[in-house]
Amino acid sequence: MGSHNAKDFQALSMALLTVSDTRGLAEDTSGAALAERIEESGHKLNARDIVTDDLYSLRAVVAAWIADKSIDAIIINGGTGMTQRDVTPEAISPLFDRCIEGFGELFRHISFTEIGPATLQSRALAGIANATLIFAVPGSPGACCTAWDKILAHQLDARSKPCNFANLLPRIRVA
């Protein structure tokens, strides 16, 4: 896993979106787990919302955050499964300027050690849009913790070696 080098920590500004037809803020244990991890790591949680599994509502929230220059990264939990209502990949992938192909593959690889072949039902994905990092993970608390603890905490920390997305952001922002 990523080790740390001497570079100073750089707090990123993040937005967190839960996609659910059944949860409100009080029941959003997955979003709460991610919010806690974001803040404990030293990053800033600048926006948090819950949206139903509706392609256009979901896309509208994410598009607004992509347009907000003060947001460095968006984490979406939920809506990545296989049912008709699971539309997160379809909602956000058209917004990507560039896909981060390895994110979903790595998430499923790590998840396999925890839940076995059921990981096939995850359509976790990531990309970059308007110099904003976007990560979509399953909505279960376990999956959210796996994604943060095993991937995102390292890739969003400028001190992680040998490379990370936090250090790439200035170069991604260059037009």
Overview of this protein structure:
With 175 residues, this protein is α/β, with parallel strands linked by helices. It has 6 helices and 8 strands, in the order ββαβαβαβαββαβα. The chain has a single domain, classed as Molybdenum Cofactor Biosythetic Enzyme, Chain A, CATH 3.40.980. 39% of the residues lie in helices and 21% in strands. Helix 1 runs parallel beside helix 5 and helix 4 (101-115) crosses helix 5. The protein is globular.
Can you tag this structure with a few keywords?
175 residues, alpha/beta, Molybdenum Cofactor Biosythetic Enzyme, Chain A, six-stranded mixed sheet, two-stranded antiparallel ribbon, 6 helices, 39% helix, globular
Largest sheet: 6 strands, mixed
Form type:
globular
Number of strands: 8
Structural domains: how many: 1
Assigned CATH class = Alpha Beta
List SSEs in N-to-C order. EEHEHEHEHEEHEH
The proportion of residues in beta strands is: 15-25%
| Separation, N- and C-terminal Cα atoms | 31 Å
Low-confidence stretches: none
Topology:
Blueprint: E1 3-4, E2 13-19, H1 29-40, E3 44-51, H2 55-67, E4 73-77, H3 88-92, E5 98-99, H4 101-115, E6 125-129, E7 132-137, H5 141-155, E8 160-161, H6 165-173
Parallel strand pairs: 2-3, 2-4, 4-7
Antiparallel strand pairs: 1-8, 5-6, 6-7
Helix pairs in contact: 1-5, 4-5
